[in-house]
Specification:
The protein is of the alpha/beta class and about 525 residues long. The protein contains 16 helices and seven strands. It is an enzyme of class 2 (transferase).
Length: about 525
Amino acid sequence: MEVNGGGAAGLPEAWSQVRAPVIVPLLRLAVAVCLTMSVLLFLERMYMAVVISGVKILRRRPDRRYRCDPIPDDDPELGTSAFPVVLIQIPMFNEREVYQLSIGAVCGLSWPSDRLVVQVLDDSTDPVIKEMVRIECERWAHKGVNITYQIRENRKGYKAGALKEGMKHGYVRECEYVAIFDADFQPDPDFLRRTIPFLVHNSDIALVQARWRFVNADECLMTRMQEMSLDYHFTVEQEVSSSVCAFFGFNGTAGVWRVSAVNEAGGWKDRTTVEDMDLAIRASLKGWKFVYLGDVQVKSELPSTFKAFRFQQHRWSCGPANLFRKMLMEIVRNKKVTIWKKIHVIYNFFLIRKIIAHIVTFTFYCLIIPATIFVPEVRIPKWGCVYIPTIITLLNSVGTPRSFHLLFFWILFENVMSLHRTKATLIGLLEAGRANEWVVTEKLGNALKMKSSSKSSAKKSFMRVWDRLNVTELGVAAFLFSCGWYDLAFGKDHFFIYLFFQGAAFFIVGIGYVGTIVPQS
């Protein structure tokens, strides 16, 4: 008993001995590093705010910067030959709920049928779904659509592998452009007529990217949060990059490529989980230009379950970091593009937006600031923990004005998701075990409108509560709550207000009470 008592009594003394020479300097260093990253992120956001304001004021729309005359369809001599042959690829994997939506929308495009080739690249492993997709393709083929249903013996390369395999067919050589739509994307009939002219009349443009429009943004609070983040990406980040240096990351869908540019860049590669970004950077390094059309919108679906969203964010965060690791020296050594474009790709595109933005959000606001509660010698200036994040948050709100009243919830949710994004970013940079993990984002399509009335399904949903627990989030919630109670009792900066709210957000996600669809009678 005396030994145990002596050991317990010695803990405060040991803490005091380690605190001054070790803990305080390390925590001050961490604060300095996080403040530096916050300033860099703040300057990046301010830069984009200034540029996008200039673009709007000067009305530098794509149709003013590039020629985009409509393709004539009333010339009896040329007929349909005035239209280039376009290949459309629809990669899918076990897409039971949405396969009809994408195939139907693509087959309904306003384009001469003899100048359109549709490929449904089905990597499904469920034989029932494969048969359903095949029958749907046959149905449209009987209506006169040039549509082919293609399967592979394996899923090597995942989406990149399927797209690459589709490009190997002989008839693709007749196609000048290729449009790509994921299985949940539904382009409007005039999509090709609004995008193809930019490629036809401007030989230096390789890619035309359209904006995503979300059909289920109002499904739940989690989808509203996603809409806010993605709307900023499209309305600001993509617009700014397109206007300043004609480069941005291809979003993987709802875009049209020049086939010759894809081939010159080396085609599709499966070395990372962001094959779209990989191709875009390689094409940009060859000197090709990209155009973003914000007024051309394609309907799509947001993941409405937390599990699906978490896997998606892992891929979207891990892939760019891993690609940065693999392409950094290739970008530096490139001699075809200007030094300014290299700086934009390395610093703005990769370092700030894909790495620092994720890491600083979690480490600073969820670890470092709470940790300083126990070490009052380490002070964080108000401009670093209040003013800068407030301005960044307000700048992010411009993409979705209708959700301005949800900013507070968006901050808390983004901080929670930064846990997974930071982990994924580090995995990608270190090329650890899950660096090439590919989990297809679950799409629910019309199933979102279905409600179960059976008691058994409600009971089954209740039993799944235990399966929805997220231990890591619960651990962070416990840490934040502990910091909050300590600050309430001994602190003077009132950090406990933020810590309790943020801890509650982690706790709610930890028990799986976010983005779930509960059957109702």
